Structure to design on (113 residues):
């Protein structure tokens, strides 16, 4: 399997990990768009939001619990942040492994499009 985020989660390629549990990994984005830009991914391969179902949706709750902790760890919990998950072609999803962008550390754009 050549999925880059599976390889990062399996420690087959290096990344700057900031938080990890048995089921998820959080690491710094290679091309940060904000002073804090972290990607949170499930360790098991899920392609996108389109593939979340009743069998695997508990990971989404775990990811948001992790985001809460990471925001505190990164010192942006009180100043605020944005969480984005791009899905499919129009969402400009470039890596086909479910991931959530956590961005903060500056005032972000008021528009999302
Ligand atoms: P998306 O466009 O939502 O699929 O986001 C993919 C993100 O993954 C982009 O922000 C990339 O900068 C980031 N990215 C790609 N490869 C790596 C990598 N090896 N380590 C860290 N971040 C990466
Ligand atoms: Zn994967």
């Amino acid at each position: 399997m050549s999925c880059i985020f599976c390889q990062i989660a399996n420690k087959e390629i290096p990344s700057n990990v900031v938080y990890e549990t048995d089921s998820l990994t959080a690491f710094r984005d290679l091309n940060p768009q904000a002073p804090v830009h972290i990607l949170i991914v499930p360790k098991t391969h899920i392609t996108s939001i389109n593939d979340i179902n009743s069998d695997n949706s508990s990971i989404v709750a775990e990811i948001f619990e992790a985001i809460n902790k990471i925001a505190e760890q990164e010192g942006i919990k009180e100043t605020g942040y944005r969480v984005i998950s791009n899905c499919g072609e129009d969402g400009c999803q470039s890596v086909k492994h479910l991931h959530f962008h956590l961005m903060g550390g500056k005032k972000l754009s008021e528009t999302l499009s």
The radius of gyration is 14 Å. Residues 4, 15, 27, 29-31, 39, 86, 92-95 surround adenosine monophosphate (ligand 1) (CB under 6 Å). The helical segments are 4-9, 58-73. The CA atoms of residues 48 and 98 lie 4 Å apart.
